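ok so for the tutorial part 2 we go from a plain amino acid sequence to predicted structure tokens. step 1 is just haveing the sequence, like this:
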Amino acid sequence: MFITPFNRIDSIQQLEQLNQGNQNKIEQNSSDFRSIFSEAVSNVVETENDLAKEQYLFATGQSEDTHSLGIASTKAQISVDLLVTLRNKALDSYNELMRISL
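step 2 — the prediction. this is what the tokens look like for a chain of 102 residues:
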């Protein structure tokens, strides 16, 4: 069994360069809460609009498949549930941070 040796780091500058490279990767891959929350809100609006369209098509008899109304309704409900869960988790986190005494 061959054991791969560690690469030797000779100076603090090399260590800082490695750390800086990792920080850049983390910043590129992570997104802030505002973008996640706004994406969830736009998803709710989009699914609600799709549901309204499917309801209109079903009510006027223009819909060829009746299951699309149920699918649109379920998608809208799931997106609202996700948004509510995000809000509740954000409020719980905020309240937890407020309870921390420094």
